[in-house]
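Observation: inputs received (chain + zinc ion).
Thought: call the complex predictor directly.
Action: predict_structure
Action Input:
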Amino acid sequence: MRQKRLFLLPIILVTLFCSVSSAPKNGVGKYNQRPHMERKNKVQLPHNVPDGYRIAQGDMLVPQGRKFINWPEGKWPEDPITGWPSVPYVLDEDVEVDRTVIESGLQHWMDNTCITFQETKNESQPHLRFIASDGGCWSYFGRQPQNGQDIMACDTIDVVTHELGHAIGFFHEQSRSDRDAYVKILWENVAPGYESEFQTEDSLNDVEYDYTSVMHYWSTEFSGNGKQTMMPWNPYDEILMYAVYGPFGVLTFRDKLLANIEYGCLDKWSSNCEGSELECLNQGYLGADCKCVCPPGTEGETCETVIGDYYPPLSCGGNVTSPSTIHTPNYPDSYNPLEYCMWWIQAPEDKKVQITFTDFDLCYHDVDADDQLFCNELWDSLEIRLEDPLTPGELYCGESEGQYADADIGPGQQFTSEGSNMFIKFYGSDWNYWRGFTADVDFV
Ligand SMILES: *[C@@H]1O[C@H](CO)[C@@H](O)[C@H](O)[C@H]1NC(C)=O
Ligand SMILES: *[C@@H]1O[C@H](CO)[C@@H](O)[C@H](O)[C@H]1NC(C)=O
Ligand SMILES: [Zn+2]
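Observation:
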């Protein structure tokens, strides 16, 4: 049976880390790559990650997925005494060092849902067994029938939270049946053999799609060539899928809501609040303390006041519809750390967009394990899409302080769009000692 087969498939989460031991203004930093956690067939993920950043998820062996499992036996049952859904767990001795991180992840779910995780000594019942990481991070989908299922939750709270999501029944966001309305899959960039990562399955999509979900992949996940494998239909939304922008690794409002629907928390809480029941508006819900839990963009006792969108606004860039100059924020002073800017330059239909750089001073190239320079979107970078806003463009990186090659773009350098649109994505890492760039926009 299809479901049965799915039910038993483990998924593996691969994360990559790279730390930067120093960030000198003069000279390229030293990159200490922890052993790369590669996918089984040794496809190299394209990233080095500066210290303090995380690559999001890259799960393996996921043939299909839904946002939430649709087989009831995969949900953890209620504790007969307390009445709350209960997930017993044991910590393998080897994971002693990670105990604090794992407990923080468990607590994060408990603070936001009615699911209880209880450490147990009774291994004669289904339970989670946290085991030490051998480099990967993974979990089964939902509760397994046998007495004990392993979970390799790794050593950072964002990954622990993600893996616990799988363990209680979450699949990846981009596997939802309705995902094609939200993201375009760029199959040509998917690493060969990993197409199954992007399959969908029928699902009940009770909660709206969420680019910022703790269960969403990054836009370049499982890329074979470093380019995006997924692009949101609104190109500006791509920033929502990056850890550095939003509160990544933290359950989003919609993640919490879904778990609370699936585990019956909303009904349980609301029956505990009888008499003092508030009617929460704008998709807010009544939480454990009988107060409304409001989605981002709303406030007030019953979430009645709408103050913005669910997603945070773009902090810089925007549509450009007339000849002008675009530049990084604060130019010629340094841009802000972790800044994302996107410009959608739109010429009249019979014209092309031409940009001429007058300055391009970004934090340098990355170097790979073989000391080769490469341009990496996790350092400062500029992506220029000449074809159309949903077709990934080339990445351009900064100078190298004389130690390696020069910057990818020099003063006077021009780019011309193929059609009437050009889309530019700037990402500034947190080494913000550089001036940034400025470029003149013309329609030709
Ligand atoms: C362990 O849990 C199972 C299932 O709940 C129960 O039947 C069994 O009695 C428990 N064993 C002990 C020693 O408590
Ligand atoms: C930017 O341009 C796109 C494409 O023309 C359009 O759909 C969108 O509404 C524009 N955004 C703003 C804020 O004007
Ligand atoms: Zn995952």
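Thought: report the result.
Final Answer: Residues 122, 124-125 surround 2-acetamido-2-deoxy-beta-D-glucopyranose (ligand 1) (CB under 6 Å). The longest helix spans residues 99-112.
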